[in-house]
């Protein structure tokens, strides 16, 4: 099996192992934007079934993503784990729902093994197409991997998927199929949607607010997030349409919400902030949210 190289190492995250590990630790230890501590040894009785993590450069969104990965690390794990990552198709290349299981994936922290069996089960449904072109230079799946490698020590497998524009009906079918196939699978399945939230500013061709941009972008994103954590998929998608929303991974989020409904989980907002909160620049803002979907067995 071939190797997919780390296309955005050195850009979105450090390209050498020492600097990368230190940056991941710093994201966890960040007391303002991150969780403020490294993942602990003590496990909770929470079962994580999915989550949403941002995919910008670690300088901006890494501390936000750390909230989800700390929660996963400290959750109850009884089986070997396969992570299905629903990425965002930024290039427009390839099939609208493109899976890529023909190569293992590499980061500076080592090789991430593909779960070919589960990937082939998905391909057999004909809802997915094996398409490497959609994954070429695409960062949305790749930037999640070093965090996963840090918490799982490479003891997990991956099914990488990137999603572009699809209908609600297709989101629902994919979410339900993920549920059907994962139910009796020998490995624990966690589904992660990789998405940033509102992209606001002239550079993004989206200027909804002329004043108090940081505050207003936050209010808009919290409006979306309220529907997400309450699994109101149609309301979420209707708001995206109403505001011509720039939540880049809304298709992946829709799939995840439909999957979580079938599993019977609940949403929890772990952290939200936007880039303006970091830089102070209100002319160019991107929102970041870390959200977990979980079942309590207590």
Fold and architecture overview:
- This protein is an alpha/beta fold.
- The chain has a single domain, classed as Protocatechuate 4,5-dioxygenase, Chain B.
- Helix content is 37%, strand content 24%.
- The chain is built from ten helices and twelve strands.
- A hairpin with a 2-residue loop joins β5 (103-107) and β6 (110-114).
Detail the topology: elements first, then pairings.
Layout (H helix, E strand, L loop, with lengths): L1 E3 L12 H13 L16 E8 L4 H16 L7 E8 L8 E3 L3 E5 L2 E5 L1 H8 L5 E2 L8 H4 L2 H8 L3 E8 L4 H16 L4 E7 L4 E2 L12 H17 L3 H10 L7 H14 L2 E9 H5 L5 E12 L2
Parallel strand pairs: 1-5, 2-9, 3-8, 3-9, 4-7, 6-8
Antiparallel strand pairs: 2-12, 4-8, 5-6, 10-12, 11-12
